Amino acid sequence: MHGHPGGVAVPEFDGRFTHPCHFLGRKQTQTIDKSQIRHRIILSLLAPGRVPTAGTIEYDIAMTDTARDTVILGSGCAGLTAAIYAARANLKPLVIEGHEPGGQLSITTLVENFPGWPEGIQGPQLIENMKLQAERFGAEFRMGHLVSADLSKRPFTLQVGSDTIHARTLIIASGASARWLGLPSEQALIGHGVSSCATCDGFFFSGREIAVVGGGDSAMEEALFLTRFATKVTLLHRREQFRASRIMLDRAIAHPKIKFMSNTKVEEVLGVEQKEVSGLRLRDTVTGMESTLPVSGLFLGIGHIPNAKMFAGQLDLDDDGYIKTRDFVFTRVSGAFACGDVQDRRYRQAVTAAGSGCMAALEVEKYLEEHGR
Ligand code: NAP
User: Fold this and answer.
1) What is the pTM of this model?
2) Which of the chain's ends, N or C, has fewer CB atoms near its CB within 10 Å?
3) CA of residue 217 to ligand 1 center, whole Å
4) How remote is the CA of residue 239 from the centroid of ligand 1, in Å?
């Protein structure tokens, strides 16, 4: 007998190794490659009853040995809630924090509608709290960008930066990023009068005049919602025709506080030096005429882009690129779950994202119980 670094005695290798084959309910002797014996024995000691059997022999032993039980892609509200649940289930989740760590909450200010915070809580603080909670139970975090994923083989293979990570299960919580105009002045004033979330930030514009950009249902919905606070909402759309549904458009047109300006493009958000939006420089797309609109806030309602492109061809995506799920969080690939804004085009709230993150983690736990760790 000799030992391995974990201190557990393992038998000498003699070219034949007998291990209990619990899946088939009987013992089975297999001749295995010398290079595999160590992984096999360690696996059998660590996970009795879950040793690969003759039927699963093509499973990559070396990969399995280092594979994570679960990898969570995204560190917004959905990903962090999944991390809390998975970590509490002792799955030691690895959370890949993407290019927007903390997700959309991390770029908002006061969150007043997340249950449990009667005075509200700052978005970044809420995210930080969730992260600390997940870490407390053993979740690991690493920064990185998913370059590619192979969900066709078990374990899944994820290329994160220059590293290859293997995972028995995957929770996709990569969110959806608000579409921005892309103007430098707009980017500089995010959180200082520029926002992509009326429900999050509308309250701060009580008694002010603001503008909403967009011609779809999101823009109509934002404009209508913002009339609760603002004295006047100017809806700016770059052309004459609207994508919005008739009912939403009619509601917005009929609202006395909403004024429409079509064929209008935002060229610059004013107030960068003062760090506070003071107005917009606009251009008429037909006449080319320039004008200035004094407003205290600019809301973008030009859609969201789900961060799911890297799964095209492997998972089902809808026409707008959202991951299609059934029974809330199941994707087409068994063992791969999706939660939060990457699969939710309807609610898109922090609390609904958290709820679906919880569901995904519970399904992962169930999946690993059924398929082995
Ligand atoms: P959308 O329908 O794609 O509309 C996006 C709007 O933003 C379009 O009018 C587009 O202009 C404009 N836009 C895009 N990029 C722009 C840019 N760089 N500069 C200026 N304008 C730009 O997106 P959505 O409104 O978010 O709706 C997405 C889906 O969700 C739709 O199916 C919608 O029905 C649904 N939704 C439903 C509800 C509801 O029923 N309550 C609420 C929200 C969303 P162009 O038209 O010129 O391309």
Assistant:
1) 0.69
2) N
3) 6
4) 13
